[in-house]
TrEMBL record:
InterPro entries named among the record's database cross-references: KCNH_animal-type
Extent of Basic and acidic residues compositional bias: 293-314, 334-345
Membrane-crossing segments per the record: 64-82, 119-146, 201-219
A GO term from the CC aspect: plasma membrane
Organism: Symbiodinium necroappetens
Name of the featured protein: Ion transport domain-containing protein
Keyword Transmembrane helix: yes
Transmembrane helix is among the record's keywords: yes
Spans annotated as Disordered: 293-345
Length: 345
């Protein structure tokens, strides 16, 4: 919907039979009607009747009227009874994009539960980039739609006729509109200019919409990159501490390589000491949820925090102990001493 709805608004010929877009919109009302039915499935899976009624009532009183209205709009558009000037209301179907945000949230939670923390920042960055591209896509299509509507009014000048866009291919028209929208982010002038009041109003809307959106998404991407950089810096600092320690103790090259490899395995695991931190969100959760955590384990873990860190470094310590006989004199036990020092910190 995010891609096809704006395109069919600006270029109606793209939805004519027998194109794939035509068949997609033919099946649209059935797909979204099935989506409404599936929204009641979580309520039916509850065991208690009161919980079922509560979840069903929550959906009926919140998203159900909107979903039904959008399905009715799909049917009206499918019947072709809506005049051209009112087809701009087809953009209301883009409200369904809000469902994608919930899907991404669930997907991100599953990644965290599976211990795949590395993919979460990249997912956030891709989501920000996709948001900017989707908004630009909608505004570019809307820009051409407004210009095309101006061609139906003979007394009004419009940018489509003024710049002879009708003689270009649809791809060239789309790229011109897309570049025009992006140019509104920058102080660099764009060759095309609005030719009537409606087009000028749309340009103002584009500026007021895109600048805050772009700033917010860039800030979100910058914050995510800074977090990734901080974690990488902390990881490198731990690794370099071990390298300097082993170099000062004149540890053999093979032992150094094995210990560094083992340390990398520990830092990449879910039990990495760098991730052993109590989140601040625990202070805001109700005590009933906190009691559901493994009883007694958290207190025991906090009381034995240095030993817990030593357990997290288990692989590195085993590599060091297995190679003790290869290290002469005072160098013996260097890896164990280093691990105890890191745990004491």
């Amino acid at each position: 919907d995010t891609i096809l709805i704006p395109i069919t608004l600006a270029w109606p010929d793209s939805a004519l039979s027998p194109s794939p877009t035509f068949f997609y919109f033919q099946a649209g009302p059935f797909l979204w009607s099935f989506d409404i039915l599936m929204s009641f499935v979580p309520a039916s899976l509850e065991k208690e009747v009161a919980a079922k009624l509560q979840m069903a009532r929550k959906y009926v009183c919140s998203r159900f009227p909107i979903d039904v209205s959008l399905v009715v709009l799909d049917v009206v558009l499918l019947l072709g009874v809506l005049e051209e000037h009112f087809r701009i209301f087809t953009l209301l179907r883009l409200i369904r994009i809000l469902k994608l945000k919930r899907v991404l949230t669930v997907f991100e939670n599953r990644l965290v539960a599976a211990g795949n923390m590395k993919a979460v920042p990249y997912l956030t960055i891709l989501q920000c980039i996709a948001t900017v591209l989707a908004v630009n896509h909608v505004l570019a299509s809307l820009l051409f739609y407004v210009g095309r509507m101006g061609t139906r009014i003979e007394a009004t000048s419009n940018w489509v006729d003024f710049y002879e866009m009708s003689f270009r291919t649809p791809l060239s028209q789309y790229m011109t509109c897309f570049n025009w929208v992006i140019a509104e982010y920058t102080p660099a002038p764009f060759p095309n200019q609005p030719q009537n009041e409606v087009e000028q109003l749309l340009i103002i809307v584009i500026i007021l919409t895109c600048l805050p959106l772009l700033g917010a998404q860039i800030g979100k991407i910058g914050g995510t990159l800074n977090t990734m950089k901080e974690k990488a810096r902390e990881r490198d600092m731990v690794r370099r501490d071990l390298q300097r320690f082993l170099q000062r103790k004149n540890a053999p090259t093979r032992l150094t390589r094995r210990m560094l490899t083992s340390l990398d395995d520990v830092l990449d695991s879910k039990d990495s000491p760098l991730n052993v931190k109590e989140p601040i969100a625990l202070k805001f959760l109700p005590s009933s949820l906190l009691d559901e955590r493994a009883p007694g384990r958290e207190d025991e873990r906090e009381a034995r925090r240095p030993h817990a860190l030593l357990d997290a470094h288990g692989r590195a310590s085993r590599a060091c102990w297995s190679a003790q006989r290869r290290v002469p004199g005072s160098q013996r036990g260097a890896g164990r001493e280093y691990l105890h020092q890191r745990a004491a910190r």
